[in-house]
Amino acid sequence: MIKKFEMLKTQLLIIAFVEVALIVVFQLAFPDNLYILQYIIILVNLIIIGVMFYTTVSSTQSRVLKVSDLLGYEAQDAFEYGKISVVTITDDGTITWVSENFEESDIGKNIRTAYPEVMKLINGKEKFVRLTIKNKEYEATIRNNDNIIFFKDVSRLTELERNNRNNSVVLGIAYLDNYEETTQYEEEQVIALIDMNIRQAVVRWADRHKMYIRRIRSDRYLLVLNEEILQEITQERFTILHEIRKEAAKMDASITLSLAFARQAESFRELEDMSNRALELAQGRGGDQVVINTKDGEMTYFGGSTEAVEKRSKVRVRVMAQNLGDVINNSTEVLIVGHRMMDFDCFGSALGVAAIAKFMANVLQSS
Predict the structure, then answer these.
(1) Is 164 contained in some domain?
(2) 15: which of 32, 138, 141, 272 lies 20 to 30 Å off by Cα?
(3) How do beta strands 289-294 and 256-263 pair?
């Protein structure tokens, strides 16, 4: 087709040159009859334009095919209903025809240039490939031993898949590490302050990200969210962990936050089991971190890189020491029993308690 246009362009240039030469000759030799030549040239040009138009239309119509011409009338309705487009190529990959949904300007191009993703089909690496053409998603396949490529419009299906994936349920557990140990011996005013600054920080964080949050224990919350929200808070790197550490440090409390999430399970019961396993892993790794449990068994961890937080506050240590002293003072004999297979921690603790008991006995005797 390009060669034909080049030939036509050459012919038009020759005709124009001849017309200009005739005008010059008549202007010099027959100036009085120049108007006759002009009418003749106009008539000839009109005839040439008409012939060119007729030839171009005839050539185009001879090259234009419909799906019915290519595959038969019985397939045309099915292809239109299924939103399937067709592209034909030569053995070397040159596009020879495209259906109405595609650009005719692609004809003559190589398939490698026009639709590079389709090369996986031609090379036999894939049976189906997905690609984007004019803001639409297509799934392409090629017929065996043929140079016909089928493109199915899957834009709606892709959108549904994306919505289904983004809205799939994710179950989470928010656990306040060391909350019970910290508040066990604290006064009511301190506990209220902890609840206001730490608990409410977790609730505000969940509300800000449009999660469903419900308190199920004094130190535990149930979280219900979707994949889109999970990706959002993952991109934020779970800043709530740092916020809880900061608030706890202001009150000299050893409370941190552990988050466990379960995703891509087939049932809510399975999500519950997966989230509990994730929480156990987070606690086993020291807390103050996030564990995401995926259906295929993949565990993803965030956090856990900070220094270990001391689990005993000054208040709790003081109260426990006072209780231990009261127990020793009210006893006539003190028996110190370690666990089986005693290690150095157990042995050292036993020596420490023995020293405390002897010291308090001496104090009682002297008093």
Answers:
(1) no
(2) 32
(3) parallel
Tokens at 270, concatenated: 């399975």
How many residues are there in the chain? Answer: 367
Computed over its alpha carbons, how large is the radius of gyration of the chain? 42
Mean pLDDT for all residues in the chain: 83
Instruction: Among 63, 88, 109, identify where a domain stops.
Output: 63
pLDDT digits (tens, 9 = 90+) for 80-128: 777 888 888 888 888 888 877 787 778 888 999 889 999 988 888 888 9
Assess if residue 197 is contained within a domain.
Answer: yes
Determine the Cα–Cα distance for residues 10 and 362; give it in Å rounded to an integer.
122
pLDDT level of residue 58 (50, 70, 90 thresholds): low
Q: Please say if the pLDDT value at position 167 is more than 50.
A: yes
- The 3-state DSSP class for residue 139 equals strand
The string of DSSP letters for 43-112 reads HHHHHHHHHHHHHHHHHHHHH---HHHHH-HHHHHHHHHTTEEEEEE-TT-BEEEE-TTS-GGGTTSBHH
**Both 281 and 235 in a single domain?**
yes
Residue 199 confidence (pLDDT): 93
Say if CB 195 and CB 215 are below 8 A apart: no
Q: What is the CATH number of the domain that holds 133?
A: 3.30.450
